[in-house]
Structures are given as structure tokens and as C-alpha cells.
Design brief:
The structure is a single chain. By secondary structure, the protein is an alpha+beta fold. Helix content is about 15%, strand content about 25%. The strands form two sheets. Strands 1, 2, 3, 4, 5, 6, 7, 8, 9 and 12 form a ten-stranded mixed beta sheet that branches. Strands 10-11 form a two-stranded antiparallel sheet. The longest helix has 12 residues.
């Protein structure tokens, strides 16, 4: 279903490849202290989610709250709200990543998904140690040039892209070969430039039907 009409478009939140020159480390000491204390909790297990797509593909992911506790909690809260139901992959680039979480389509019109509150960026450039590398299959938060601007948009790497390490909050990874194959296949679809900043937009819309927890409980860590 090609998209031919546009309105209500705001600025995109996309992962920047080049390092940002801005410095956002001031006044983060209290936040970092709280995060470190939270990340030392004893977790029952790593939560797992299933992304169900409109093209009948599925992407199964394991999330790592010990590595990025605020990011994982934010993502799971959105999952529990069914926030991602109907959002589209609006930016896909072969040999890089697939990105979603910010827009949905109604007919031939793209609309902004209501943006949620921004969260602290859990990566080393922002003063937080995150050991998860941006390898193929890793899920990470998209953001603007502002370190603490991530909220609801995320991307999944289709190849190893280690230049992103330390600058974006990676927080999980695919757990099976078919899920990675699906990410790679999506990254290779035909794309078009439809204006308004959408330069790598899939020619045929790919949307998320829903994201499901693969466990039966919302209690994913011990307080």
C-alpha cells in the first residue's frame, strides 16, 4: 500500500551516525546514582517480547534490564499499553537498521504517534556504562542530538554497526535465527523518498500489529 499523501508530520527521531558535538553530562549525577542502584537489583529473568508484523513476520527479542534498566522499563510500559499496535517501519536502510515507533498510517496519510516522555540515555557518552554492542539483531533507542531525548522510537540493527556503541541505548537482542533473518529481509525492501524527511520509507507499508510479552507476568524484577 504505497503512501501518497502526507500531513501532521513532526521532526523525526533518528539515530545519528556521526558523533554529536553537544555535551549533556551536566546535572546527571543524581540520575546516574539512581540508575546504578536500580541496576544492581536481583532480576528473575530477562523479559522476552514478540513483535508481530503485518506481513506475518515475527521478531523475538530478549531484553536486558541489568544493562539498561530505565530503557527496558520504558519499553515494556509501552508494550503493556499496546502503544506500538499499528505503528509503521518508517526508515529502513540495508546494511544498517530498521526503525519504527513514531508514526502510523490511516489510508494514504502518515500521522505522528503521540510522543511519550523522554528518558535518560543509558550509554557511555551520557555518563552511563552500557556494555551491549550494536551487533546484528540488537535493539536500541533512537534519539535526536539531545542525549536524553529517546522516548518511544527504536531501531533494530540488521548488521554489526559498532560505531553506534556508546552513543545509543542498546537494550536487547533477537533470540533466534529466523528473527534476525526477518530483520535483514525488512532492511532490504524497496524504499522511496516521499518527502518530509522520509527518505528511506518502505514502498509497501510494513506495520507492527502488536508486541506481546512472551511470559505471563508483568513483574519483571524484584524491588
Amino acid at each position: 500500500m504505497p503512501v501518497t499523501k502526507m500531513k501532521k508530520i513532526s521532526s523525526l527521531i533518528i539515530p545519528f551516525i556521526a558523533l554529536c558535538s553537544c555535551n549533556n553530562e551536566s546535572d546527571n549525577s543524581e540520575i546516574k546514582s539512581e540508575i546504578i542502584q536500580e541496576s544492581s537489583s536481583e532480576y528473575i529473568e530477562n523479559p522476552k517480547v514478540k513483535i508481530v508484523l503485518s506481513n506475518e513476520m515475527e521478531i523475538n527479542l530478549e531484553l536486558y534490564p541489568k544493562i539498561a534498566p530505565i530503557t527496558v522499563e520504558n519499553f515494556l510500559n509501552l508494550v503493556d499499553e499496546n502503544y506500538y499496535d499499528g505503528v509503521i517501519f518508517h526508515r529502513v536502510i540495508e546494511n544498517f537498521m530498521i526503525q519504527t515507533g513514531g508514526f502510523f498510517v490511516d489510508g494514504t496519510t502518515i500521522y505522528d504517534k503521540e510522543k511519550r516522555e523522554s528518558i535518560f540515555g543509558e550509554f557511555s557518552a551520557n555518563g552511563f556504562e552500557n556494555s551491549l554492542k550494536h551487533e546484528a539483531g540488537v535493539i536500541s533507542m533512537a534519539r535526536t542530538k539531545e542525549y536524553n531525548s529517546a522516548s518511544n522510537q527504536f531501531f533494530i540493527c540488521s548488521v554489526d554497526y559498532l560505531s553506534l556503541d556508546g552513543n545509543y541505548a542498546a537494550f536487547g537482542k533477537v533470540i533466534d535465527e529466523q528473527s534476525l533473518a526477518n530483520v535483514i529481509e525488512i532492511s532490504k525492501v524497496e524504499t522511496i523518498n516521499i518527502g518530509y524527511g522520509f527518505t528511506n520509507f518502505p514502498a509497501e507499508v510494513i506495520s507492527i500489529e502488536t508486541i506481546l510479552r512472551m511470559d505471563n507476568t508483568k513483574e519483571w524484577h524484584i524491588n
